[in-house]
Design brief:
Chain lengths: ~120, ~110
Amino acid sequence: NAGVTQTPKFQVLKTGQSMTLQCAQDMNHEYMSWYRQDPGMGLRLIHYSVGAGITDQGEVPNGYNVSRSTTEDFPLRLLSAAPSQTSVYFCASSRESDSSYNEQFFGPGTRLTVL
Amino acid sequence: SQQGEEDPQALSIQEGENATMNCSYKTSINNLQWYRQNSGRGLVHLILIRSNEREKHSGRLRVTLDTSKKSSSLLITASRAADTASYFCATDGRGGGNKLTFGTGTQLKVEL
């Protein structure tokens, strides 16, 4: 199993550009989520999905869109990049969507800089 | 908003010593989890403690939970240089589901 994979590892954007961060998992997990990590602020939940076709907002969803057309993939789209979106982005998955007693598996992260 | 706050923010110890880090949270929980993050990497799950448990062990890790004080502690015994990492607590909400709220983390440095 590759676990949770993310691409790209690094990305530099100019203000106003759009892009998609890719996330895939091969563990047949129901639950997938996106976090951003900023210095001194821990991880904050952007969007999450409890299964294919079902997504919902987390704590900091503004400026981001997600979709979940398959169980495996959960891309995060930045609509119009802003410097405030400079961060490290982590995708995570867990086995069940209706239980909090699951560990979450994290990808290696995408480091995004918006100029 | 941050549910969990870790204390201390940074900790430096010698190899072989024990490391203790604390986490406080604000609302009722079903469980609390601890994760480790090595520099430049994703988070790795360490241990989960349920709200009806007071203490749990896993190898060199010992976690305690005091729901009356809304706090947890992570003890790493006989620390090694490889334990150098950031450690985060994460809490769910009483509403259930997988949404976790992470604390700000403790940076642990274990020196030879």
